[in-house]
Amino acid sequence: MYTISVQLTSINAEKLATTLPPKVEFNVNLTLPSGEPIRKGNQYILPFTFTVSSLPPIVQIVLRGNALVIAKNENELKKLDKDVKEKKIPPPIIQAIFTNAIADSILISRSLGIPPPVPGISQLQQMKSSGKLEKKGFGQESVI
């Protein structure tokens, strides 16, 4: 397993509207790597860009940073080398970056006075009615 540290290098957030519409849809995008990965010994520095925008346009949040990924042994390092060269970033790295970035964007949206960029209850209900949640093992009793 890798040791992963996520650090932001740039935060840009802007509230684009003074009044909030009744329904807001968020578009969330993670670009990884967003620049050239750097290898130093048994570690990689992977630059990323995390963007949140909304429809209608009420907010724009752009977070840029680096994920420092440290391999614990030679096998992990070889696999990470191969994955980075093929631009197939391992899911634990993507998850660590996404989790940190979404948490930061929720705090920023709170400071801007806008709803957090997370799926709303109506979106979850639509996913459930379409069967997407049941296929992943989420049922009536599940806590999200």
Q: Radius of gyration from the CA trace? A: 18 Å
Structural class by helix and strand composition: alpha+beta
Shape: elongated
The total number of structural domains is 1
CATH architecture: Roll
Helical residues, percent:
25-40%
Main β-sheet description:
5 strands, antiparallel
List SSEs in N-to-C order.
EEEEEHHHH
Query: Total helix count?
Result: 4
In the CATH scheme, the class would be Alpha Beta
Query: Which residues form runs of ≥5 with pLDDT under 50?
Result: 121-127, 132-144
Quaternary structure state of the chains depicted: single chain
What is the CATH superfamily classification? Answer: SecB-like
Which strand-content bin applies to the residues?
25-35%
Strand segment count: 5
Annotated CATH topology: Bacterial Protein-export protein SecB
Query: Averaged pLDDT, please?
Result: 83
Q: What does this 3D model show about the protein?
A:
The protein has helices at 74-85, 91-112, 121-130, 132-135, and strands spanning 3-15, 25-31, 38-40, 43-55, 59-70. With 144 residues, it is an alpha+beta fold. It has one domain (3-135): Bacterial Protein-export protein SecB (Roll). Strands 1, 2, 3, 4 and 5 form a five-stranded antiparallel sheet that branches. The radius of gyration is 18 Å and the shape is elongated. The model is unreliable at 121-127 and 132-144 (pLDDT under 50).
